[in-house]
C-alpha cells in the first residue's frame, strides 16, 4: 500500500475513535447519571490520551513527508491538508496537557450545570480558573509566540483572526444598534401567551425536524439543558429543551440544531469517517443552523405553516392570523439569553462574549472579575441589569468545557447565512410559495448540493464563496435584517 493509503487507514480509525469520544459527551449531557461525573471524567481523559497519541504518532509525520500532494486528486489533497493541520496542531500540545484539559472540562461541565441551577457563581469559579489556565497553556503552545486567542479561534474557524472578527463586528455594530433602537421605539407585536404542554411540543418538534429533512433513521432528538448537535454521517444526534410558557424556545432550537445535523447527514458518503467527512468549520456550520432557523424557519410563509401546526396541536392560543403570528415569532424582546435572542439583538450577545473571552485568554480579565465584567457590559449594551447568574455569565456551557474561540463563529455563521440566503432566493424564485406549504426541500436541497455535500473539501470561506457567488460580507445580512424588521415594525 502507498503512504497515502496507509495514512488514510490510520486517519479513519482516529476519526472513528473521535466519534466514540463525542458519544460519551452526548451521553453526559443527556442520559448519564449525575453521580457518574468523576468516572466519566476519567473515561474522557483516557479517550483523549488515545486520540492525542494517534494524532501525534511519528508515523503520521513520516507518511506526510513521503506523500507528493501534486500526485493526488482534489479530494486527496483536502484529506492531506486536514491531516497535516491536525498533526501540526496536536504536536504542539503536550500529551499530559491535552489529557488534563479533557479531564478537567468533563468535571467542569457538571459543576457548571449545578452552579447554574443553584444560581451560585462562586461555586463555579474555582474550576473555571482551572479551565482558563489550562486553555491559556494550550493556546500559548499552539500560538508559538503569536496571538493566543487567534490560536483558539483557529480550532473552530481555520485562518480567521481576532483582528478580522473585531473589524467585522465593529462595522456591524452601528447598523445593528440603530435598528434595535428604532424597533424598540416602535409599537411591538403581541407576545405569545398561554401554557403549552411539553409533550405536545416534543411531538410537534419532531414534525418540524422532519419538515427540514432530518433523517431520524440516522438521528435522534433528546432533551438537554443546552440544545446541541453531535455526531456525523450515519449517527447524528440533536437535543432541544421545552418551556411550558415558551414553545418557540423548543421549536426554533430544534430547527437550529437540525441545520447542524442535516449538514453532517448530507456530507458525501464517500467521505464518511475521514478528515473531511464533517462540517468544515463552526462558522460554516452556524451558517446552516442559522439559515434553517431564521431565513427559512422564521420567514412569513413558513411561520404561517407553523401557525397552522400549533393551532392543530394546542387549539386557540390567542393569535388570530398567520400574519400576526409571523410578527410574534419575530418580536424583538428584552431578554438575557443568547439562544433565545431575536435576530436583531443576537449578534450583540455574541460580541459581548467575544470581547470577554478574548480578555480572559489574553490575561486582561481575571476569572474572579468575570461576573462583574459581564454584568457591566450587558447593562451598557442592552440598557438593563442582569437579574440572576443563569441569565448572565452562567447561561452558556461553552466556557466550562473549554470552547474558547467558539462564540464568534455564531455571528460569522450569521454573516455566511446572509450571503447564502441572497443566492438561494435568486436560485429558487418561488421559494416562498413552497415554504407556505411547509415544504423546505427546494431550499435544503440547494444548500445540500451547493455546500453541505462537500464537507471539508474546501476551506471555509471558499465553500461559502463557491455556493453564494460572492466574497463573504456582512452587507447581505444587515440588508436582510433591516428590510425584515422595518417591515414588521412599520418603520
Automatic annotation (TrEMBL):
<feature type="binding site">
    <location>
        <position position="260"/>
    </location>
    <ligand>
        <name>Zn(2+)</name>
    </ligand>
</feature>
<dbReference type="Pfam" id="PF02074">
    <property type="entry name" value="Peptidase_M32"/>
</dbReference>
<feature type="binding site">
    <location>
        <position position="256"/>
    </location>
    <ligand>
        <name>Zn(2+)</name>
    </ligand>
</feature>
<dbReference type="InterPro" id="IPR001333">
    <property type="entry name" value="Peptidase_M32_Taq"/>
</dbReference>
<dbReference type="GO" id="GO:0004181">
    <property type="term" value="F:metallocarboxypeptidase activity"/>
</dbReference>
<feature type="active site" description="Proton donor/acceptor">
    <location>
        <position position="257"/>
    </location>
</feature>
<keyword id="KW-0645">Protease</keyword>
<keyword id="KW-0479">Metal-binding</keyword>
<keyword id="KW-0482">Metalloprotease</keyword>
<keyword id="KW-0862">Zinc</keyword>
<dbReference type="GO" id="GO:0046872">
    <property type="term" value="F:metal ion binding"/>
</dbReference>
<comment type="similarity">
    <text>Belongs to the peptidase M32 family.</text>
</comment>
<keyword id="KW-0121">Carboxypeptidase</keyword>
<protein>
    <recommendedName>
        <fullName>Metal-dependent carboxypeptidase</fullName>
        <ecNumber>3.4.17.19</ecNumber>
    </recommendedName>
</protein>
<keyword id="KW-0378">Hydrolase</keyword>
<feature type="binding site">
    <location>
        <position position="286"/>
    </location>
    <ligand>
        <name>Zn(2+)</name>
    </ligand>
</feature>
<dbReference type="GO" id="GO:0006508">
    <property type="term" value="P:proteolysis"/>
</dbReference>
<comment type="function">
    <text>Broad specificity carboxypetidase that releases amino acids sequentially from the C-terminus, including neutral, aromatic, polar and basic residues.</text>
</comment>
